[in-house]
Amino acid sequence: MKDLSEKLKLLASRSPHWVEFRYHRRNVQTLQVQKGLVKQLKSSITSGVGIRVLVNGAWGFSATSDLSDVSLEKSLKQAIECGNSLSQVKQSKVKTLPQVKLARGEFVLPGYEALSKMTLEEKLEAVRRAEAQTREKSPAIETASGYYNEIFEDKIVVTSDGADALSRLVRNEFRLSAFAGKAGEKASATQTVGRTGSWECLFEDHSMDSLSEEAARLAVDLVGAPRVQGGLATLILSPAMVGLLSHEAIGHTVEADFVLSGSVAAGKLGQHVASPLITLVDGGKVESAPNGGGDLLVDDEGVPTQNTEIIKDGVLKSYLHNRESAAAFNVEPTGNARAWLYNDEPLIRMRNTYIQPGTQSIDEIIASTEEGYLVDGPRGGQADSTGEFMFGAQNVSRIKNGKVTELLRGATISGQAFKVLSTVDAVSKEFKLDLGAGYCGKGQPAKVDAGGPYIRCKALVGGIQE
Amino acid sequence: MSKYLKAEEQQLENTALELQSHALKAGAEAVEVCGTFLHKTKITLEKQDFHLASADDNYVFGIRTLVDGKQGFSSCNTVDPKELRDVATRSVQIAAVSPQNPYIAIEAGPNLSADTKLDLFDKELFQVSLQTQKEWARLLKEEATRDKRFRLNEGSVDIIAGATLVSNSKGTLMRVTENAAYWTLMGMGVEGNEITSFDYFQEMARNPTQVQEKLLLSTRDFCKQLIDGLKTGTSKSYKGLAAFSPRAVAHILLSGLSYHVNGRNVVEGSTRWTLDDLGKSVLHPTLTVEDLPWLADRTGAALFDREGIPTANTTILEKGVLGEFLMDSYAAKALGQKSSNGHAAGGPTSLPGVGAFCLSLAGGTKSSSALMSEAATQQKEFLLVHRFSGNVDPVTGDFSGVAKAAEWCIDGKPVHVAKETLISGNVFDVLGSSLFGISKDRVVINASEECPTLIADGVSVTGSQS
Question: Is the pLDDT of residue B82 over 70?
C-alpha cells in the first residue's frame, strides 16, 4: 500500500490540474444457507484506482484496475481529456475547492485483523447452526434462511492539494429469516444486525440465538395476524424505525446536492423544522454507540469526517457536504463524500444518522399512550424531494390504554418529514444504532447505519379500509 | 468473434481458459467461468448543468468450481496472471469447505439454435465520438429544462460497449458482443411552494438513429408528466376499485408474481405454487404472462443465460393457467426436471440465480380509456396508481406504500394528482378474483417490461382527507 501511495503522490505532483487518486480494494465474502443447504459461499475481490480531475471548472473521471505506471498515466490523461471536453460546455464552473485540513496518515478502524483471522469454515458453521435452529423452533416454520456478508476495505486517497490517507476497515452483517405457514396462510420475519468491526462486535447486542428466537416467533405470530387500519395515527417508533426516519426522511433532504436541486430543506437553515425535543446528527463515529455500520474516519475526498448536527433542538443547522457543495455554500466540508467502488465518483452520502436520546423511558412513553401503534422492523424506505417519506415496518403492535396489546401485520408509514418531526412529543432515553444490514441507494449503494431513541409522533399508516 | 471488440473477446477467452486450467490443477472436477469486458463513457448532468465526463474499461471474471459435488465461487476484476491463479485456487478452496449439495451442477449446454436472430451490436454506435455523446447530453438537458418548472437533479447519457463470455470445462462456450446508449433523468416539478415528487426514467437505444428518434420524445413525455403533477388535490379513503398504470403493474404486480414463479423459490418451499399446480388455473383467466428475451430494444435482451444455456420465450401464465416456472440448472435438478429452461440470472460477480429477462403481460380487448369509463359505472371516483413507493411482501403478496403522483379519477377521467395517498392490498387478490379488467393498449416501462393498464377491486386507499 505504501509503495502505491508514493507512486500516486508522484503522479499527483506532476498533474497540471487538481487531481484526486483513490485506490480501493474491496474483498467481500458472502455465505447464505437456506433450508439446510448452502446457497452461496463466495469471495469477490474488486480493486483499482479512480482518478478525478478538475479542469477549468469541470470534472473529469477515469478508472483503471491495472496499477502499472503506464496504465495509471493513461487513465490520468483520459480523465483530463474528459474534464477538458466537458469544460467547453459547462455553464456553472466548479469553484476552487475550499481549503480544509485534509487527512494525512493511517486511519484504521478496529476488527479488521481479528475478522480476517477467523476462518470461513467457522463462519459457515455458525450460520448453518443458526438457520437450523430457526427451523426447529416451531412446526409452523416451513423454511429459514441465514445470510452473512463481510466487506474488507483498503483505501488510499491522495490529492494534489495535500490529502494522503491510508484507511482500512471491515463491515459485516448477518440476516436471519423465518418463513412460516398455517392453513394456507404464509408470513415471514427477518432479523438483521450490521456493524463495522469484528465477529464478536456484530453479535454484541443481539446474539445469534436471540435473533433466531425472535425471527421464528415473529414469523409464526404474523401468520394470520390482523391488518392495520389505514389513516393518521399516533406511533411509537423503535430505534431502528427512528433510524429510517432520520436517514430517509431528513438525511436525504439535507444532502447538499439535493438542496441545490431544490429539496424541501432548501432555504430553511436557521428555521424551526422539528419539535424542540429533536436533535439530529450524522457522524463518522458515534461515541455512545461504537462500531456503527456507517463508521468512517476519512471520506473519499480525503476529508476527516465530522459529527454534523443537522437539527439542533428543532432548528435546522447544517446540510451534508462534499468539497464542491461546501464551496458553493461557503462552509467547511463535512466529510460526506463516499464512493462504492474504485470506478464510482464520490457522492454526498450519509454515515451514521441518528436522533439524540431524551429523558423518558420507553415504558413511560407506552404507559402514557392512550391509543396508537408500536412500530418496529424496518423494511426499506424512500424519501422524496417534497420531504414525503415512506418506510415499511415488519411488525406493528397495537397500543391501547397504555398497554401493548395485539400484533398486527406489517404496514407502511408515511408523512411529510418535517411535519412528522414537529409532532414528536416524547423521546426515550434508550438509544441504539439499529439499522442492521442497511444500505442506502443513490445511484451507487453505500453502507450506512442509523438509529436513535424511541420517539412518539403522528404519521399516516398505510393499512386497510373497511 | 466480433471484429469490433476482437482483442477484448480474445482476452476474455484466454483468461477463461487460464482460470479453468488453474482450477482443474488445484483439484476441481468441473469449472465454469463467466467473464465480461465493458467500455463505458458517461456524460453526467446535475442541477440543470453538465457535471462530469468519465471513461472506464474493465474486465470482471467469476469462477465457479465443483469438487466432490461441492461448490466454490470467487470473482475478480483483473487479468494479472498471478492474481488469476489465486482467484482460481480460492474458488477450489471454498468448494472444499462447502457441504455437498446434490443439485449443483456444471454441465455442457446445447448450442444456440440456427434460427436465433438477435443482433445486439451496432457498428455505428460503436464509432460515436465523445463529442456526439456530449451533443446528445446537451439535447437531453435542453429538452428537460425547456420548461423552467422542471428541476433536473441528475441525468446522464451513457454509451456502453462490451463482451460477455460463459465457458465451462464440459465444453460450453458462449459469447456475445453488445452495445447500447442509455439515457436517464431524475428530477421534479417546482412552481412557487408547490413541489412534485421526484421521478426518474431510463430509456435505451441500440443505434444512433434510434437515439435521435427516442431521446427528445421520451424526455418530453417524462417532463410533461412531472409538470402535470403540480396540479394537486385531495383524495378520499375507501376500499374498492383502483386502476394501476402499466408502470404500477410492472412494479407492484409483476414483481410480486415473479417471486412465485422463480424455480429456486419453488425448491425452497416459499412459493404459493408447486409443481402440482402446473397446468392448473391459478389466476384470472384474462392474464397471460411471458418472458421474452429476444427483444433487442429491451435492457434484458439476451442470447444465453448466466450458465451459457440458450434463452427462449417462456410462457409463465396462459389465460390464468400456470405454464412454466423459471429455472436454472439447480432449480431444474432439484425439481426433477429434464433441464434448465435458460433462466439463470446474474453477472460474473455472482453465482447463478433465477430471473426473468423481459416480462410481458398481454393486453385485453378494450382501450384503457374505455376500461376506465366502464369502471366508473361501478364506482364514480377511484385512484389511478402510477409510481409506487412501498413494499411488496414477496411471500404473502401483500403490498403497502405511497402512491406517488397518483391521479384521482372522477367518471373514469383523471382530475388532479392526489397528494399523500397510500394504497394497500394483495397482489394475488388483484390478479385473481378481484381483477376488473386489463387494457388492450400496453406500454414498455424503462426499456424493460411491457404491461397494460389494470383495474382491480378490493384495494384499500388511505387518502389525504382521512
Answer: yes
